[in-house]
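Same chain as my last thread, 120 residues:
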Amino acid sequence: MKLIENPIAVCGLECDKCDIYLMNEDEEIAEKMLRWFKKKSWRPESFTIEELMQEGPFCLGCRGDPEKHWSADCYALKCAKEKNIDSCHKCEDFVCDWYDGATRKYAEGIERLKKIQEKS
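reply #2:
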């Protein structure tokens, strides 16, 4: 699968620093992710790296194939599509309640999007 250069997700996360995104082309990262999926009981102990590379989950970022996105239930992506925008910073409600209580990664994403918004 072809990864895009310097992708920024709808929510501001940097896809090219995300292991789920990178595991598409890096078997070492895929093996790490498989261990994590098993630890979370998202895959059975018998699940192999070959099965993971064939079945996924895959993520090509928000701007990639929607069938190959980490979470079909991604709130930010669904909201952006409903509002016909390609980034949260273009929303009149940015920064919305969805970001409240977000992890540090999302806080970094918010700051990244604020900088993009300032340049727009």
